[in-house]
């Protein structure tokens, strides 16, 4: 089980920006590079959905609803995954989770993002 610690999130007005972080302090750097990473979100009453992903090769992919507004990235030296969210909309309101998948896997604890109209 990969230990992940999320930070960021909060309350923002529509059109604003937030940056989420997901740290993997117990991973060694080589293991960090070997993992596919992603961000999911779950809104009240809805299923958890994939928001963005970054593969071991660095290829990124986004849900249609966030493409062009969100950017997933990682810093291997700090072993942190990021999600930069710009142009936030009320429908982006959800609990956001990071997920690492490799020989082991793990989920972050979740962080609330609330976008006020």
Describe the protein.
- It is a single chain.
- By secondary structure, the chain is mainly beta.
- Strands 2, 4, 5, 6, 9, 10 and 11 form a seven-stranded mixed beta sheet that branches. A four-stranded antiparallel beta sheet has the order 1-3-8-7, with no helix packed on it.
- The protein has one helix and eleven strands.
- Helix content is 4%, strand content 50%.
- The mean pLDDT is 96.
- The protein has one helix at residues 29-33, and strands at 5-7, 10-13, 18-23, 36-42, 49-54, 60-62, 70-75, 80-85, 94-101, 105-107, 111-116.
- It starts with a strand and ends with a strand.
- The protein is globular and about 40 Å long.
- Strand 9 (94-101) and strand 10 form a beta hairpin.
Give structural attributes.
11 strands, mainly beta, single chain, four-stranded antiparallel beta sheet
How would you sum up this structure in a few lines?
With 117 residues, this protein is mainly beta. It has 1 helix and 11 strands.
Secondary-structure element order, as H and E? EEEHEEEEEEEE
Count of beta strands: 11
Shape: globular
Strand content: over 45%
């Amino acid at each position: 089980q990969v230990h992940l610690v999320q930070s960021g999130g909060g309350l923002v007005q529509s059109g604003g920006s937030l940056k989420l972080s997901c740290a993997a302090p117990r991973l060694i750097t080589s293991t960090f590079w070997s993992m596919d990473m992603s961000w999911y979100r779950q809104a009240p009453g809805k299923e958890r959905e994939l928001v963005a992903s970054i593969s071991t090769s660095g290829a990124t992919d986004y849900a249609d609803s966030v493409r062009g507004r969100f950017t997933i990235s990682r810093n291997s030296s700090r072993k942190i995954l990021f999600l930069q969210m710009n142009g936030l909309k009320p429908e982006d309101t959800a609990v956001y989770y990071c997920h690492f998948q490799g020989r082991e896997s793990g989920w972050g604890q979740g962080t609330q993002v609330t976008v006020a109209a």
